[in-house]
Design goal:
Two copies of one chain form a homodimer. Chain A is of the alpha/beta class and 404 residues long. Helix content of chain A is 45%, strand content 14%. In chain A, helix 3 (48-66) packs across helix 11, helix 4 packs across helix 11 and helix 7 packs parallel to helix 8. The first copy, chain A, is globular and about 60 Å long.
Chain lengths: 404, 404
């Protein structure tokens, strides 16, 4: 036990190192390793020139405000630009006064965890689900119940059964957390029918739905279904969260949260204690990048680039992976998920060998599964590696799988 | 009760609106009101030109990194620049790997609150103390014990008594939170003797000391005593936190935390769940502003400007305030604290009248006092208003006090 461990709260004791982040640290140090870990955009395409210009302009034009403290909710210009963006791209009408700017969507998820969870609470997520959300909900003390996915997203009949069961033992969840479009890690997108079913169940059991939506802005298939739950939300019970990380750049750490009206003030007060407000400068940069069309143009670039990379990864998987594997065919996002149906296959146990001998990295799927399953799965990122690396990395992975 | 109130955690229920922030919202809308509320730097002096240039350069020169995700602790360049800055200005040697970059020091305080406090825990602060720390510790469930101040800072004999008492009932505090230099709100600076006494007591009772140090970089009196507790810390038990908000600009939201070595990894993991990391771009901007001497030059500017403003506020107080008042004579920081010794004087109850009739705003002192006292006190900010406004505002305040 370390020197001050006896003073630590249960929350911080529960936090384990994230495999993704630990991996990133290792593989960053070797050029030889092809990494499918992480969820990192390809920096080659960042609109550097435009952002350099915008950053300069914003400080020169209104540095008195851009360098100063701001309102906790965020500067009005940024909240307005986000509200307009969401209306334009999603058809969701939101008053800028119902938008809170956060430090990436991770902070929005943290705000939700702190606002609702007390130890012992149930929380429902998809299974598998986003690693950092799962870990965070658990650190806050939640008992996370995962609902399995298929090609059409969360199995809402199973959700209905679970809610009925939880209701009968007076243990309804604090909220249902879903990533309906190009889900992380599975790559699956929820059908419209199931989206409606989720909202119907939320209404029936009077629940909050947290819609985490980082990926729906650049879908590879224009006919794809991606109506936000927030759009279907007639009873104002969806907390919608998203981020600039994938549609512009993660390094500015701008995210946002659009909660039901009754929760805005509560979350604002919580955010005030968390960091007073997110960086003013970055908010002005993002607002101007939206207003000048930089974000829209960048979305078209990443849509094209990531679609191509996804296509190549799928082609690689089809070519190299043995027939006892399954992989998702995502319509967006940054990830392909794969299951290896080989007895006792353990992607976690093999990771060290993968990195050291096969020079390829991935995220073992187990840590995305609330029920502890998924040892035979991995998450593969296609946004960061080059096309050559994608083929070569998939080939190496296939070797690893065959020799395991 | 609002729609989802039954789902909220005790933490978020406990959070009340901060008077400072609410005030800021009102007075921002009227030009007539002279505001001594808030703790806002004078934006006239922000090094806008230099920062505009630096922001542009940083994105142009290494946008691939500056716009990308970074390590949770912060980018090495920034942690190194901060470690060097603290060594150069304070004589405190720190490995960059023991520095975590945060989103302002408010986030550092929040990290500490979450890392240690469970409901019912004792926490010791000065009385009065920083409003947002007090509110946050309480929201996390702490029972905050305030130790009174005099002209030499926290009364450490009273601290010793309190610790003895708490020890006897097996309720030692999770930590002692102090702002030793140019304290907010009191403006008082702790003597070297008392600093040593705090560290001696921390050692005796095996306690963590949180040293919040936003103001010590620009002292108005060069002979002033401001040896950091971190410098006196032979047993590695001080968590030192500070911020770029006062020495450069609050809008970039850069702060840092230098914990005992044993706590670095724990806090890093917590930070990862809170927001993955603070904005990469802002870290590079701050690192370069430090390296290029922009921060040092700005410190000289604010030292001069705020010293002049402090002098004028003291001159105004001496001229206009009745003789049944006391006010601090701070050697740094942004605030003067004043007590009005007039029967039943209630600065909180008078605030609305002050704003609406006398057109002057301040922060009532009561909310800074852990024990609920201090109704007859107010905090006056001298960094934001102009010199004319300082005299006129103090004159109006004096009228308010006399007519109360």
């Amino acid at each position: 036990m370390d020197k001050f461990d006896h003073l630590l709260s249960p929350t911080i004791r529960k936090i384990k190192a994230s495999e993704i982040r630990e991996l990133l640290k290792i593989i960053g140090k070797s050029k030889e390793i092809i990494s499918f870990a992480g969820g990192i955009p390809d920096p080659k395409y960042f609109p550097k020139k435009e952002l350099a210009e915008i950053a300069k302009e914003v400080i020169e034009d209104f540095g008195d405000r851009a360098l100063q403290y701001s309102e906790t909710m965020g500067v009005y210009e940024c909240r307005k630009a986000v509200a307009e963006f969401i209306y334009r791209t999603k058809g969701v009408k939101t008053d800028p006064d119902n938008v809170i700017i956060t430090t990436g969507s991770q902070q929005a998820i943290d705000m939700i965890a702190r606002a609702f969870i007390v130890p012992g609470d149930k929380v429902i997520t998809e299974s598998p689900t986003y690693l950092a959300s799962l870990g965070l909900f658990r650190a806050q003390g939640a008992d996370v119940v995962g609902i399995k996915l298929d090609d059409h997203g969360m199995k809402t009949l199973a959700l209905e059964e679970e809610l009925k069961k939880l209701k009968s033992i007076d243990a309804l969840p604090k909220f249902i957390y879903v990533i309906p479009t190009a889900q992380n890690p599975s790559g699956v997108t929820m059908s419209l029918e199931r989206r409606k079913h989720v909202m119907e169940l939320a209404g029936k059991y009077d629940l909050i739905v947290v819609e985490d939506d980082p990926y729906s802005f650049f879908l590879f298939d224009n006919r794809a279904e991606a109506t936000p739950l927030k759009y279907l939300d007639k009873e104002d019970r969806v907390i919608y969260i998203s981020t600039a990380s994938k549609i512009l750049a993660p390094g500015i750490r701008i995210g946002w949260i659009m909660p039901p009206k009754e929760l805005v003030r509560r979350l604002e007060l919580l955010k005030q204690y968390m960091d007073l407000h997110s960086p003013t400068l970055n908010q002005y940069i993002f607002a101007r990048a939206l207003d000048k069309g930089v974000v829209d143009r960048h979305i078209e670039v990443v849509r094209r680039v990531y679609k191509e990379k996804r296509d190549h990864m799928i082609a690689g998987l089809e070519k190299y992976f043995p027939n006892y594997t399954w992989f998702s065919r995502p319509i967006g996002g940054l990830f392909i998920f794969t299951y290896i149906f080989k007895e006792d296959f353990d992607a976690g146990a093999l990771l060290e060998k993968a990195i050291n001998e096969y020079k390829v990295a991935y995220v073992p799927g187990k840590s995305f599964h609330p029920d502890g399953g998924g040892a035979n799965s991995m998450r593969l990122n296609f946004s960061y590696p080059s096309i050559n690396e994608i083929y070569e990395g998939v080939r190496r992975l296939a070797e690893l799988i065959k020799n395991a």
